Amino acid sequence: MATPCSSSRLRYLIHLAHDNVDFRLPVNIFYFLLVGVALAVSVNSPFWCLEGLSEDDVRSVMARSVCAKSAFELWGHGQTDGNLRSSLLNYPPQSMSPFLHKDSTYRINVYTFNKTLQFQDRIKKIDALDYLPFEGTVSLKTPQHIFCLLEDYGTDPNNIPEHPNYIYFGRWIADGQRELIRTHSVKNRHFIGNTSMEAGLSLIMTNHAKVKENDLIFDPFVGTGSLLVACSHFGAYVCGTDIDYNTIHGKGRSSRKNQKWRGPDENIRANLRQYGTEKMFVDVMVSDASKPVWRNAALFDAIITDPPYGIRESTRKTGSYKENTKLPDCTYVESHVPVSQAYHLSDIFTDLLNFSAHHLVLGGRLVYWLPIYRYCDEMVPVHPCLQIISNCEQTLSSQTSRRLITMEKVKEPEESDIIAHLSDPHFSAYQGHNAFREKYFSGLNKRCGKEDTKYFNKN
């Protein structure tokens, strides 16, 4: 097995959570490249060794990351206990001494990945580190310094080795923001809908978009505002639109028992108020992505959205197939709900990319979900003004998935860019998204039919 940390310059270790594995590399690349870090990591590994950054850089990364559990200053590593001991004894004593002197207090934790150790086994591993020159006092509750022994037992839960594949030891620096996933969980949210985005993915999308304080963020399919909640946590101003009049104006049946609707915008405002970020709320209006009311608005720093797939929510836009849809006096009452018509997924993406090209600042990002049935690269919509930064997959079934697409605006649009997609050879490929709903339910019906046949054959 190759040594994951072979460089003598390696100084820091990132312990990553093993969920949403495909999403964490693009997020962390942005932060690591921002501070000039050399990245040589295995995407599937729960431990990343890094060099070329300071402790302050590590803390700034961990202050945003929801994919990382903890970060450590790496003192030693090896494939065996003997290798670890040699590595630790070769670590510069002057780098250790500020944390091991007699007036300090400390604690040693043992973390294992893919294996659970008994308490007695953990104590034995700590006792085996007696060759380290600890002179301070042990304090389990309030230590000044925390040290960690981390053991990697691979990623296959069905083939756990007796001994670890690799061992690390280091000084704890900071924890990631995993706690945000719990505090922002939709289980505790005041208002939710059929398609409210889970907190973990909402925060990941926020990091993919590089959302920062005082940014202006727009969601054209805002729903109950899950993505706006995540963006506002990092100090961004948020706004959005949605075609669902009832959702925006807080009318109709709720998605949660005893959930009370309080009037226009109050469902989204209440979600923001729950986390103390209501002041970041700009506005939410009834509109759709084909005719957004923000066409004359100032440029957005990022556009983050989850378009409807036609599964839990229908794909509709305002308009009619009739030639004349205006009232005789061209006026509408306040409660008027515009006539809607079918909105094909390929048209949604075309409008979304065109809108983003015109209304993102240069360098601004578009982050959106793309539903896929049997993926191929040609299915991802493209635009002359937008460069694809990352393409991450979340599997939904054996045939379907959705991909988190991150794009960055690289140039200002020209008149010809509006219809550029028609000459794109990929256009016919991603027009296949229009049948996603039919293919999804066709596959579901086939699976249900097979299960029913098995049931009747058994009985």
From TrEMBL:
Catalytic activity: guanosine(10) in tRNA + S-adenosyl-L-methionine = N(2)-methylguanosine(10) in tRNA + S-adenosyl-L-homocysteine + H(+)
PROSITE patterns: N6_MTASE, SAM_MT_TRM11
Transmembrane segments: 29-50
Keywords assigned: Cytoplasm, Membrane, Methyltransferase, RNA-binding, S-adenosyl-L-methionine, Transferase, Transmembrane, Transmembrane helix, tRNA processing, tRNA-binding
Cellular component, GO, one term: tRNA methyltransferase complex
Function per UniProt: Catalytic subunit of the TRMT11-TRM112 methyltransferase complex, that specifically mediates the S-adenosyl-L-methionine-dependent N(2)-methylation of guanosine nucleotide at position 10 (m2G10) in tRNAs. This is one of the major tRNA (guanine-N(2))-methyltransferases.
Membership in a protein family: Belongs to the class I-like SAM-binding methyltransferase superfamily. TRM11 methyltransferase family.
Protein name per Swiss-Prot or TrEMBL: tRNA (guanine(10)-N(2))-methyltransferase TRMT11
Species per Swiss-Prot/TrEMBL record: Oryzias sinensis
